[in-house]
Structure of Protein-L-isoaspartate O-methyltransferase:
Amino acid sequence: MSDQVLRRRLAERLWSSGDLRSPEWRRAVETVPRHLFVPEFFRRLSTPRGTMWEPVTPATVSEDERLRLAYQDETWVTQIDGGIHPGDVREPIHAGSLTSSSTLPGLVVAMLEDLDVHTGSDVLEIGTGTGYSTALLCERLGAEHVVSVETDPGLAARAARNLHQAGYTPTLITGDGLAGCAAHAPYDRIIATCSVRSIPPAWIVQGRPGATVLTTLSGWLYGSAYAKVEVNADETATGRFLPETYSFMMARSQQPPPTEIHETQPVDSARPRPATVPPDALDDPTALFIAQLAAPRAQHGGRSMNSGPAVDYYADQETGSVSAVTRHDDDTWSVQETGPTPPWDLIETALTEWRNAGSPALEHFRIDITSHEQRVFVPGHDALAWRLPC
């Protein structure tokens, strides 16, 4: 089957799902050859040895099958552990971390629709990746209106080759996307395909008055919220959160520090107290995001079940604070904590206030940005307000 037919079928699926909502973006999806941007990738395998990643390359999979896979509405991983590419291996491998991917087209185009571009809009894209979303922007707006920044030199070079092969010539910058690209500012729209802990000030400064910044806010607990921010004339910004729950890989410079949190953490001598909120409450995406707002330096060390009850560990390495939350046979939980700012104490307080306020959904949250602070809050609820780490 030809790639033209596959592109049209992909566009039809995304139109039917509601991810594509405008004829202009539909034409872009029907035109941009995604297979040129994912000539090789990893696909996930569930095996008796756990999750592994199988290389899909010309050496391992037929051309027809690779073409078919390229036009699936799937995210394809293109780099593992900051430097392993599909062509580097022949057999499935385990991954420490996934460091680049071609995001599923449905999510890509849904965000592009939310960006609300118009003919002549100048767009700054943070995170070129494979170059596929960059190509869609070029097809919709013209390459002269697109600037894209990629922090990884190897990925940037691959994206440049992909874009050249597909016939697109945007301005490509290799550097820290959190710094934006002042040389080509100002911009009407800024879109990030990585998650950030707070909105980088450069994005606000480089936006024209009325510019839109579209990104996902995340953090070290891996909660995520989808933010749409408008730049004001005085280089402040205000925004809201959209109802969709999207997540992207964290910006590399904002990755959490390495940590070893486990059952040897020094909390055994702390007096247990009943937990008012169990760790399972964080299965709710909004609750997880609130927990992250309340304890922005906290990291979850996982759940230990070594010959005893389940214990979840949370640690703030900066202050040395640790919380161990233990589940008992009667399905109650207790907490042992040490340090000046125990993470679970902060999380419980925030989630209790949120529940007392009626558990408002993320679309009721707002964000205010100035040069000296960024604040996420729920209007009308003074207890539901937090400063983002800057």
